[in-house]
Structure prediction request, 106 residues.
Amino acid sequence: MVKYSLMDQIGQQPKDGVAVKQVFFTKQASALYAITAGWPGKQLVLRDVKVPAGATVTMLGVAGALPTQLAGTTLTITTPDLRPDAAPCRHAFVFKIAGAEVLPEK
Prediction:
């Protein structure tokens, strides 16, 4: 019998003194999708992603592109200011990043 802890598996513990929220990724030919379990807050910071210059970032279920900042391989997405009844979901949120890809873990 082996100890099983979902929180250990998804990495919610701080890493190198920095809080970590787990993001799950899936990819299609033209876009990378970042999926968060729960609302990410005012910003979602994705590290180790390759994003082409001028790439559009959207949130599924919300109209329009989101403001972003790209610094090397770190993408900061400013999330929309939504009322709880205007959110497209209550449990998971999906951000579509055109032309992006996740870089291999170091």
User: Anything to note?
Assistant: The mean pLDDT is 84. The domain at 21-102 is CATH 2.60.40.1180 (Immunoglobulin-like). The CA atoms of residues 7 and 13 lie 8 Å apart.
